[in-house]
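User: Teach me something about this protein's shape.
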Amino acid sequence: MAHLMDVFLHVAVVLLIAPSCGGQKTDKSPHQSVTVMLGKDVVLPCQLDPPVDAVSMIFEWGRPDLKPRFVLVWHDGKELPEDQNKAYKGRASLSVDKLKRGDLQLTLTEVKISDNGTYRCYIPKMKKEMFVDLIIGAASPPSVSLAGMDKANHGVMLDCESKGWYPQPELMWLDAEGHLLSAGAPGSVKGPDDLYTISSRVTVKKTASNNFTCKLQQRNINQTRERSFHVPDDFFLVPRSCSSSIAISVVFVLIIISIFAFMAWKLRNNKKEKKKRNEDREALRESLMMESKKVEELEKLKLSEDSQRKEIEELKETLMGLTRELEKQRDYLTYKWKEAESLVKEHERKVKSVEEEVSEKKGDSKEKKAQGYLKIREICKEAGWNHENFRKKEIQHMQMITDKLMKMTMDAVKKIKEMNNKEKDNEKPSMKHTSEKMDQKTKMDST
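Assistant: First, the predicted structure itself:
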């Protein structure tokens, strides 16, 4: 039931604010104009005379050229958004405080180019309508740049461009005194945002100040933008006679030919030098590759020699140990030899003592004793001689073997040292030569 009432109310409001029939007349007020720049907020006036409280009235703001035409509909103290045009949702508003004083002004926020048009404030009950022409404007400063030389007229060409205008403005060129300069019709392009881009080119000649101005104006929105530009004296061409022009042209051509000839000669020499450098570099690269292979072989040989050197060192230590053991053996034999000599001397001393003792005995038994002692002495002498002879031969043989082993050991150690020294002497020149080659390669790569 409540929904049906809302529908009925909506239909009733639409009928009330619909255009009146042919037999009825409405009071029309003169059109008013409001100008606002793009993106700003604007207020569209609509004032009741005499002022009365309009909060409980029914009225509309609309644009006849839109469908639906309703910008804002007011009914009994509130807005009716059902038939509002989508372009104005959230952007059109009224002030309740001002409505109480009979002021029906409409506020639009962040105006767009599409907002440009005629708006109607319509009060059905009073049969009154007021029209407001909203003019949206946009302007931007121009940029002026040097476009080139006009040799035929001995002048300078200037370009002027300005983007973001609405409506389309006029463009004119002025000299320092404000006089209009002759220029072609400006170009105009309308972008997808409905804004215009204006451009123009003019040829100017040398003046006292060489100051020139590009000026744009739009009278409907009362907007003007301009930019001045100074052209240095050196940019203007000075007229020359035909003969001087020809001479200058000939000199210029000769200079160009000379430059090209020099560049060709330089390029040819550069190619030759580059080819020679490449050949030298390639030869050096091949030499370095061969040296690199030699270095690798030397490294492998060095590893093998290191292994052999390690084995030789171990052998050297072994031989040195053997030498020390032989020295100990020799010392031991010398000691034994001296000990044997001492025993022999001790036997001789005892035999001598026996002889003295026998010689001191008296009586008949003396001769027997003497004979016995003589036999003992002979035996002792023979035993001592045999013992001494055996000892001497054994010790002499051992000393001879020991000396021979020591000599062989020392000869082996000496030979090993000579081999090591010879290997070190051979390695130094080879490593030095390889290092020099590597330095040459580094220099060539950096070149």
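Now, about its shape. Helices lie at 2-17, 96-99, 242-360, 365-446. The first strand starts at residue 27 and ends at 28. If you'd like, I can walk through any region in more detail.
User: That's plenty for now, thanks!
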